[in-house]
Each structure stands twice: as structure tokens, then as C-alpha cells.
Amino acid sequence: MRPFLTTLLALTIALGGLLATPAQALPRVGMVQAAGVTSSSVTLTWPKYRGAKTYRVHRAANYAFTKGLRVTKAKTNRATVRGLRSGVEYCFKVRAYNRKGQHVATSARTCKPAAAISVPRAGAPVSTMTYNICSQVCDRRPELRMKPWSVRRGVVTNTILRSGADVVALQESFGWKTIAGDLRSAYTVVPEFGYYQVSTLAFRTSRFEQVVDTVTYGDGGETVVETTPRAATINLPNGKRATWSELRDRRTGRKTVFVSAHISDQTGSAANARRRVETRSLLVQVGAANTHRSRVVYLGDFNSNKSRGHAGDTPARVMGSAGYLDAYDQARTLTRPNFNSVTKGALKPVRSFTHGDHIDKVWVRRGDGIGVESWANANPIRGTKYVGPLGSDHCPILVRLRMS
Known about the structure:
By secondary structure, this protein is an alpha+beta fold. Helices cover about 20% and strands about 35% of the residues.
């Protein structure tokens, strides 16, 4: 009897250990991504899990999954979770079940808010792009193992020309002395006092024109008319800069100020404080220059994202206090949302599970009549890797707006 009892005890211990295995120790369902967003729903997609017959999408109104718990059943690897509150961030995880109804795999958590800005039904589509091109900067960073700017320049030029973007905000564009000539076939480039440094704006000439200030005066009996484009580069704290220009839409006649900004990098409390000061200065200076009180769209490399937490993501806190929201969170459709907008010089995309860890942003303000139709990481991709050579250590972010 002793051998039998020993065997039975061993089986009991093994079975108890199996039953006690936590859900997170199960195999993982692939990365869950938000494919579409409305003010009351989020559509999620994920890779099919081998052997799964059904799925259940668990959602909560906080990351700890202690508030607002609900479950949505799905027979495929796509589900729309409804009944959400506008502007509230929800977190989701997917569980896979086999034919016997057994829970066989679960996903990591991904978090996404329901949209807080509606898309105007009667509005003109405007495509925008923000792109830190790291022109000569990446040449000084051998650890990235990227091609020299003399090679990457053509990649960046083709990326912009093929994007179809109406307005393009560039950062780290100093060193690209031929930018106006390279883009002249489609774009007018807003210079920084005749040369191009930290930030640059380009707009599609067929779609927009610069708003100008006109001054008329007499000079020796003759009437002289002087015009000055409403555009300038402003100095931010810590040596950072931003370029703005007020543009008039040739289709609608509406005026909008577009801004290309570059905020400090690095991590830690001191860097967070620098970014807070720079972002505040950006808002104040653009506000002072915007004497026509036109609506403003901010684009650029803000060097921060949600993964740093509410306290650490100081640009979002400052922009949010002024009513601005990240276009990523408002977009009705998203493409490669969990691909980080930084490549680190590698063809294999950097991915994040919880948030789309993009530091390159487009900000729109509620009440300005601007909705977000789509957000995309627009770096050319083939299969599972970016197409080389890379133009930059950043990806171009393409955001399609609808502006009433």
C-alpha cells in the first residue's frame, strides 16, 4: 500500500500545482491592437491563436482591472467592445478557449481611450505628417548603424513625396540645405531665417497658401505695398526651437496655424521638468503670435509617451490642460498602432503591448472643428520588417484630419 499511497500523493501534489497555475503563466495570445475607435467603442484585433475556438475580451476602466469589468465574446480574432464612455481610457486583455471550452491562452494588456472628439461630417480632409528625419544627427551616432545622410536623404525625400501629406512637420532637419529644392515639385518649405535647423514646415502648394500681413504706405508720392508671410521660428527654453506658419486652405478658405516642434529628450525627473517648461513656452509663444486667433495644430517630436505614466508624461499634461488631445487617441482607424515611432536604427519594429509608445505626436483641440480620421505609422514595411535603408531612427507618422 505504501508505493500506491506515495504515487497517489505525488499525483495530488502535481494536480494541485497545475490548478494553482496563474493565468499569466499560460501561453500568450499575440499582441492586441486597437484597429478602430469611436466615442463609445473600441475595435480590437489580435493574431489567431492555434487551437482556439472562441475568445473573450475582458475590459476594465483601469489597468489593475478592478473597475468597470465587462466581457465581450468573439468567434474570430476581432471584436468591437461597445458601451464605453467618451474620453475614458480602457484596458483590454484577450483570452482564448479551445473546443472544450478550456482557457488555453491569454494576452498582455493593451489600453486605449474611447474618442473624445467627433469627426465633422461636412469637412475637408487634410493629411498631415510629422517626421524626425535625424539628418546629420544620426551620422554622429555610430551605435545606430545607419546609412549616412547622403544616402538617407533620398529615402526621406521619397517618403515625403509619396505620402500625399498636405502639411509636413520635420524635426532635426538641419544639414538638409537642399530641402526646398528636393521638395519643390509639390511643396513650399517654410525656412528658419533662410536656413533649416531644428524644425521645418512644408505644405503642399496645390492645397495651401501662406497667410500674409500686408502694410501699405506712401514713399515719395508712390504707394508701396509690403507683404510678410505669417511664419516664424521661435526659441524655446534649453536651446529647442519650433517653426509655425499660418496657412489658408485653398478649398475652404479656412485658416489654420501649423506648428513643427522638437522637445527635449532623455528620461528622469529633470528631463520631465524640462519638457514641461518647453511645452508651456511653446503654447504661450504660439498663442502670442496667433493674432488672428486661428485654430492651431501642433506636430512634432515631444519625446514622451504614456508609458512614462501620468506624472512623467509632462507634454501630454501641459497640452491636455490647454484642451489638446493626442490624435492617436482620437483616430477612427489606426495602422500599426503598437509600433513605436522610434526604430533605434533597426529594421525590426520596436513594439509595445500596453500603449502605442510613440513620441512623435499630432495634437488637435476639442472645439476647433477638427476630427481625426486615421493615424498610421507610415514607415514602409515588407513582411515583418521595415524596408531598408531606413531614412531615420524615427518613423513618419501620418495623420488624416477632417477640418470643418
